[in-house]
Amino acid sequence: MAEQSYDKNALLALPIKEKLELAEALWNSIEQDMPEISKDEIAFAHERLLMHEAKPDEGLTLYQLKQYFRDKYGF
Fold first, then answer.
1. Total domains present in the chain
2. What gap in Å lies between CA 56 and CA 50, rounded to an integer?
3. Considering the entire predicted model, what is its pTM?
4. CA gap 26, 20 in Å, rounded
């Protein structure tokens, strides 16, 4: 882990308004660093959406998916 150049306790002690402003600034900085989604990724997601719309009762619920990963990988 990189050395911290901030005082975590000082940040946690900030007033709520300043915490929210900082959180928004951090979130926006993450958005700017995100790679663009490729055309292939968009096509894949669209294909999966169409499959779901064609048979919405197939697949797993979120609970079932979480349970699957919990059982298989222990988390």
1. 1
2. 10
3. 0.47
4. 10
Instruction: Give me the tens of pLDDT residue by residue for the chain, a chain 75 residues long.
Output: 567 788 999 999 999 999 999 999 999 999 888 899 999 999 999 999 999 999 999 989 999 999 999 999 998
- DSSP letter at 13 equals T
Q: Are 52 and 45 in contact (CB under 8 A)?
A: no
Residue 26 structural domain:
1-75
Three-point CA angle 71, 50, 31, nearest 5°: 70
As a whole number of angstroms, the distance between CA 46 and CA 68 comes to: 24
- H/E element, 15: none
